[in-house]
Amino acid sequence: MFFKTKFNDSFNQTVEASDAINTVSNVAKQIEQQYFSPVFMMAQTAVAVITSTVFVLKTNLVLGFIYIMLSTLSFLPSHIGKNEMGRFASRWSLANAKLVAIMKDIFQGRMEIRNFNVKAIFMNKFAQKLNHEEAKYQKMTAFQYLIQFCAWVFAIVSFFLPIIIGIALSHVPALRITPSVIITLMLTADSVVGGIRELTSFQSMIVSTNKLRTVKLDFGPNHGNDQPKLDVNQGLNISHLAAERNHKVIFKNVNLKVAKNKKVIITGPSGVGKSTLLDMIAGQLTSSFGSVRFEDGSIQPQDFVFISQSVWLFDGTIRDNLTLYQNYSDQQLEKVMTAVGLNQELGHHALDFKIINNGGNVSGGQAQRIAIARGLLRKKPIFILDEITSSLDEKRADEIHQLIYHLPSIVLEVAHNFNVKLAHENGVSIYHLSSKGLKEI
């Protein structure tokens, strides 16, 4: 029920997705091992301690009471350190959440990370978060062991001290403390001391999960170079491309030549394979026949920008989302921000605008502009666009298309609904895709 509740909370827009993933997938094991298991074991141990305590008190009330009182000293380290233990657990949980967030960012943006050749940078970021998380976990575990060690020391003291006191009090006849009583209590009280020691250990484990249960590698050289290898003056040549799915032909004989800076829209009925065609051009799918080439070679990931309806944004500033932690000057960033119209919309200090919840605080049109600005910043020769305006209203869609049509690059766009008049006014070539290939319309 705990995990169902936490996962259900993730559907609330105010809950960070990374927090929900962290709670369900990463904290689950710790809570299982350090909360649920100790709770059941604690109940069993408590029954044994109570039974032993009754026997000890019946053997000799005075010396038995001394045994029990001294045994409670074992709880002191756990009681004194529980607040600090909670803080250690909270720090580890925060570090773990950040680790999960960077992992999610990397997996969601692996296409863009490969296109912009920033894998080494993001893997270094991941390594930093991983090392930080491991350090916090080690500190939490070390403090937990320290508490347990202190508790064991107190338990040893509470075992031997009553024996010394019992020998001293054996000279008082009224107390009826005999050697046999001392030996009996020494043997029996061990179960009380041992049980209390186990209870202390279980308690420290449970305390370490308090914050969690009340929660609202060599990666290769980093060249830092994602600039296209191919000249922007070169054209794109698609020759006899074909695709199959489950041994059924989706389309065949797709031929297309796109000159430098030309814009092409590919349309067609749903299910005809428009997105499949783009994936093949981008190298995400292997074609069953044909080829996709520039005039002097095959297309490389760093030669194009692939933008879909869902733009990859990660938590950070717009500056971070544009540079992807590479070195670009603010002057360069301001130039592309102005080109895509973000400076006008976001105003002063737009580069410092904080993106949260993976772009939840920016509009769909703004997210598309950020994705386009990434490509402009790196002078990408090809923009591959998959239904990027399908979720925008007509006005916003036209604004994005006006921007796209004036990019100094080849543009291949799959679109279902678009302004045909605007496309013709800007010299855009429109092709219809069918199972037999492409036909200009």
Could you explain the architecture of this structure?
This protein is an alpha/beta fold and about 450 residues long. It folds into 2 domains: about 1-215, ABC transporter type 1, transmembrane domain (ABC transporter transmembrane region fold), CATH 1.20.1560.10; about 235-440, Rossmann fold (3-Layer(aba) Sandwich). About 55% of the residues lie in helices and about 15% in strands. The chain contains 15 helices and 12 strands. It has helices at about 1-10, 15-60, 60-70, 75-110, 110-115, 120-170, 180-205, 210-215, 275-280, 320-325, 330-340, 340-345, 365-375, 395-405, 420-425, and strands spanning about 235-245, 250-260, 265, 290-295, 295-300, 305-310, 315, 355, 380-385, 410-415, 430-435, 435-440. The strands form 3 sheets. A 6-stranded mixed β-sheet has the order 6-9-10-3-11-12, sandwiched between helices. It has a 4-stranded antiparallel β-sheet with strand order 2-1-4-5, covered by helices on one side. The longest helix is centred in the N-terminal third of the chain and has 51 residues, at about 120-170. The model is unreliable at about 10-15 and about 215-225 (pLDDT under 50).
- Summarize model confidence as the mean pLDDT: 82
**Uncertain stretches of 5 or more adjacent residues:** 10-15, 217-225
Q: Which strand-content bin applies to the residues? A: 5-15%
Helix fraction, binned, reads 55-70%
- The CATH topology of the largest domain turns out to be ABC transporter transmembrane region fold
Class derived from helix and strand content: alpha/beta
